[in-house]
Amino acid sequence: MSNSQIPEEARKYIDDILSYMDLSKVEPEVKEQLAQDMFEQLDRFLHARTIDALPEDSLDAYEDLVNSGAPASDIQKFFETHIPNLTQVLTSAAAEFKLANIPKNS
Question: CB 3.0 to 4.6 Å from 89: which of 53, 68, 98, 104, for a disulfide?
Fold first, then answer.
């Protein structure tokens, strides 16, 4: 995954988290790999928290949608339709992720 595959908003968020770490002696390629890895972790974390927020009666429909190979845009629309407080869920999850990834001595 290259630098261009991290969306700009996510890049800023990840760079902010990485700024709390002492990476001054780390090679740029290693920093980029850290950013890529963190983006993948963030994506999985947000997705997991979103699934957790789905009402139980929507889980089978979600699973069917995923198993059908639906594009990400359709899955996003499904979440928007079935989770009325989706923005709050994502905002809380992002804050939780950041807190978990900032070194404790910062």
Answer: 53
